[in-house]
Write a structure and sequence with these properties.
It is built from 12 helices and no strands. It has about 220 residues and is an all-alpha fold. The relative contact order is 0.08. The chain binds a DNA duplex (21 and 21 nucleotides) through helix 1, helix 4 and helix 7. Keywords: DNA-binding, Nucleus, Repeat.
DNA sequence: AAGGTAGGCAACCGCCACACG
DNA sequence: TCGTGTGGCGGTTGCCTACCT
């Protein structure tokens, strides 16, 4: 609803700037100022995007390392796409959420330039409501209808995917999957798949839906039979 | 025009896992 | 092996803005 305009961001930054003046607080919180962004970017350029606590101090920021990391990953990092989530991206989010639950970082890994925070926000503010509404209207057929857009009608159905992957649980379990599944404790955490393998995107290009089919056909093709 | 409300987003919080000494 | 520090993640909160009455 309320798009974040440059003006609104600036205003938030002004508020953050005011907060900075409050020297009683050792660690600054709240909105980041342009100056802070600049300092952080310079520090990361010099020292790399690691050891966030060190970066925070090297940059002369009264921020905790976590805050710096978050700011970098969600806002300052290069190649970040902002706003305008396409239909294709939305569809992918829905499908991945069906598979993975609230594991936003994994979902974000499938969407180049998107952050887990952005996807989480998008889900919470757009998709979850729409889905719950559709669930009321259509019952169990909801997901199938939502993902049946023109460009991907031929692909696997998420419900079936979930069943297949659930079936895979009995024979394909790794430490990576258990580790990832242990986080969040979402509704799909019982689906244990080889996450390292499943989410190895190093050889892939931009957004596409082939990986689902690829995965199902290759390593786990037997589940389709 | 003014106040109330809901939506959207950025950022914080708390927990957990891992690395390292 | 244990304790501590750090990073990563999902959940939640707070602020701002557009819309509604």
């Amino acid at each position: 609803m309320a798009p974040v305009t440059k003006e609104s961001v600036d205003r938030r930054k002004m508020k953050g700037g005011e907060a900075m003046k409050n020297t009683k607080r050792k660690v600054n919180k709240g909105a980041w100022t342009t100056e802070e962004d600049q300092k952080l970017a310079e520090a990361i350029e010099t020292h790399g995007a690691k050891r966030w606590k060190t970066i925070a101090s090297k940059a002369g920021l009264n921020r905790c390392g976590k805050s710096c990391r978050l700011r970098w990953l969600n806002y300052l990092r290069p190649n970040i796409k902002r706003g305008n989530i396409s239909d294709q991206e939305e569809d992918l989010i829905v499908r991945l959420h069906k598979l993975l639950g609230n594991r936003w970082s994994l979902i974000a890994g499938r969407l180049p330039g998107r952050t887990d925070n952005e996807i989480k926000n998008y889900w919470n503010s757009h998709l979850s409501k729409r889905i719950s509404q559709k669930e009321k209207e259509n019952g169990a057929n909801l997901t199938r209808k939502m993902i049946s857009t023109d460009h991907q009608k031929d692909h696997v159905q998420m419900k079936e995917d979930a069943s297949l992957l659930e079936a895979a649980t009995s024979t394909s379990t790794t430490s990576a999957s258990s580790s990832a599944a242990s986080k969040g404790g979402d509704q799909n955490s019982n689906i244990n798949i080889d996450v390292d393998d499943f989410f190895d995107f190093s050889n892939e290009g931009s957004l596409n839906l082939e990986w689902v089919s690829k995965f199902l056909e290759q390593d786990h093709g037997r589940w389709l039979n």
